[in-house]
């Protein structure tokens, strides 16, 4: 799910439930499914993609700050900044 997907093309996507894997991986799969469902429901309720994205990023920053502190969070965000600038998150825009 991303800002370039048509709101009419929304369908739940599952990362799949794997009995194998570490508890951490199983938690990531479960959380991916929960987040994907949240995103889909928010958009279906009329919440704009960019608002969902902004709130998601903000919540993630607060979580990183709480767990790792400012220094590590800043380093992580600087890395993300470079990833965005290098095109790692680039997606084709629809015509």
Spell out the blueprint of helices and strands.
Layout: H1 23-44, H2 49-85
Q: Key terms for this structure?
A:
95 residues; mainly alpha; 2 domains; 62% helix; disordered N terminus
Provide a brief overview of the structure.
With 95 residues, the chain is an all-alpha fold. Helix content is 62%, strand content 0%.
If you had to describe this structure to a student in words, what would you say it looks like?
The chain has 95 residues and is mainly alpha-helical. It has two domains: 14-47; 48-90, no CATH class. Helices cover 62% and strands 0% of the residues. The protein has helices spanning 23-44, 49-85. The protein starts with 22 loop residues before the first helix and ends in a 10-residue tail after the last helix. Residues 1-5 have low confidence and may be disordered.
């Amino acid at each position: 799910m991303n800002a370039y997907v048509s709101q009419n093309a929304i369908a739940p996507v599952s990362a799949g439930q794997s009995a194998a894997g570490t508890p951490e991986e199983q938690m990531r799969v479960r959380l991916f499914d929960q987040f994907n469902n949240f995103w889909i429901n928010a958009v279906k309720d009329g919440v704009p993609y960019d608002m969902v994205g902004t709130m998601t990023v903000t919540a993630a920053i607060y979580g990183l700050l709480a767990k790792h502190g400012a220094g590590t969070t800043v380093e992580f965000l600087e890395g993300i900044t470079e990833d965005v600038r290098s095109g790692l998150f680039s997606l084709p825009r629809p015509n």
